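REQUEST
  id: r-88c1
  op: predict_structure
  target: NtaA/DmoA family FMN-dependent monooxygenase
  payload:
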Amino acid sequence: MSTESTKQVILGAYLGGVNHHTAWWHPEAGSQIDFSSFEHTARTAERGKFDFFFLAEGLALRERAGQIFDQDIIGRPDTFTVLASLAAVTEHLGLAGTINATFNEPFELARQFATLDHLSGGRAAWNVVTSFDAFTGRNFRRGGFLDPADRYVRAEETLNAVRALWDSWSVHDLVADKETGRFLARPDAGAFAITGRQFDISGRFGVPRSPQGRPVVLQAGVSPQGRDFAAANADAIFSPYGKLPEAADFYRDIKARAVAAGRAPGDIKILPSASFVLGDTTAEAEEKYRAIQREQVTGQTALILLEQIWNRDLSAYDPEGPVPDIDPDPEAAPIIQGRAFLHQDRFATARRLREVAEAKKLSLREVVIDQFERGPLVGTPAEVAEHIDSFVRSDGSDGFILGSHLVPTGLDEFVDRVVPLLQDRGVLRAEYTGTTLRDNLGLPDIRSATPVTAR
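RESPONSE
  id: r-88c1
  status: 200
  body:
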């Protein structure tokens, strides 16, 4: 395949947290809480000319059968505190935080992200997520949850309200005083009044227009309702598909929905997440990957991952034996709490796992290893660079959000060995040229004029 390409690759970096993919047992593994881990990952991503650093969020300690989930690395510091700290040790890297629209209010969300955008010089991004489970919600309010049908209603009203607050200051609302040289606000600056099913709020927003005009909005949606919401509102959407042709089908669908919502196809970027394993040869990389998988998916881990589908206690089953022949019990109280459930049809998923196990002659643990990985990038640096470039050129995505099983130093190998090859292909910047995250992502400039900053 030709190494010439005009479509630029977007790269995000994430720091692995509370799941079994993180090799916490590795002698080189660090903390998921210490600032040094966040700083190292962010600095490494910026050295590799990545577009942004992405921080996921866990709002509740996960449980199994009412007990703390001992398969997880527990603990998640506050998103805004981490990202604001990273703004001080980076210069170009976007700073994307996952914040729940169900449990937070528009005024606080707007103020926090606008502040982060000012502190970082225009590098803030909000990953909008929703929640409807009472387990998470009880940390926030009595009753604690929304009906599943209402979560996107609240999310859309929340996002619209936040944008209205961001837009309540125009770039012309700060006027320079000729005598003092200081900026003064116009009398109506920041005024807002918002009424809807979820909110009835009014007042004045206290943060002037931020450097990007609005922080970047990220979202993930797989259901038809979620896809419509993301296509109409997001600047980038996280894709769950890491393999062609299903990734290309998702890509075309989201772009078409964006056009139907009155937007241009390029107004929204599609980004799957991926891990990677590199080797000097293909065989070496594949053997390293198999070894990592065997360490990540212990017998206990395999049983717990299947318990989330079966919604039953499977601890009596042998991980090296067959997949359970009993049916899932979706009507029972959830045995696993606090983990995102990705399988819409429990019975169909259980049936598929049995079929795969029988066809490939796999044990319970082996079928989990075989079926639960989301398309890692495995190969030599040249093979991984070729795969990324080819995948993006084939419109499987606009880039990737990359993470490593090893925190925090795992990303170093990708930056040292793969990034130069992508730069040689001309698909990844050699230097940052934009001044904001929107610039670097190639998103429309929504500023009507150059924003000013209060002094």
